[in-house]
């Protein structure tokens, strides 16, 4: 099996699985019974997007997506921590 066929046979189904995960995260963000569920779904969404960017980087043999993945990962982490701290403070009041 050549490397190109292997990439297509493995990376494209993995991208589809991550796409389904993104759809489930959006559904939980919209429906989530509590704000904490929505924050957790937001964090999961960020991780799925980072995974998809890393798979795209490997599929297209470029490093451009790696920089974008790093930025999304850092912003997602900061956003999740900020939302969790805000919800913790508002729940304590």
What is the strand and helix layout of this fold?
Layout: H1 3-31, H2 35-60, H3 64-92
Helix pairs in contact: 1-2, 2-3
Protein name: Na(+)/H(+) antiporter subunit F
Keywords: Cell membrane, Membrane, Transmembrane, Transmembrane helix, Transport
Transmembrane segments: 6-27, 39-60, 66-87
Description:
- By secondary structure, this protein is mostly helical.
- It is built from three helices and no strands.
- It has helices at 3-31, 35-60, 64-92.
- Helix 1 runs antiparallel to helix 2 and helix 2 (35-60) packs antiparallel against helix 3.
- The longest helix has 29 residues, at 3-31.
- The termini are far apart.
- InterPro entries: MrpF/PhaF-like.
- This is Na(+)/H(+) antiporter subunit F.
- One of its GO terms (cellular component) is plasma membrane.
What's a quick, concise take on this entry?
With 93 residues, the chain is mainly α. The protein has three helices and no strands. The chain has one domain (3-92): Helix Hairpins (Orthogonal Bundle), CATH 1.10.287.
């Amino acid at each position: 099996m050549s490397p190109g066929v292997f990439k297509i046979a493995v990376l494209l189904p993995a991208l589809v699985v991550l796409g389904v995960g993104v759809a489930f995260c959006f559904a939980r963000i919209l429906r989530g019974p509590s704000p904490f569920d929505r924050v957790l779904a937001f964090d999961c969404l960020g991780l799925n997007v980072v995974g998809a960017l890393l798979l795209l980087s490997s599929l297209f043999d470029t490093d451009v997506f790696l920089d974008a993945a790093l930025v999304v990962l850092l912003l997602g982490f900061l956003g999740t921590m900020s939302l969790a701290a805000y919800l913790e403070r508002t729940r304590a009041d």
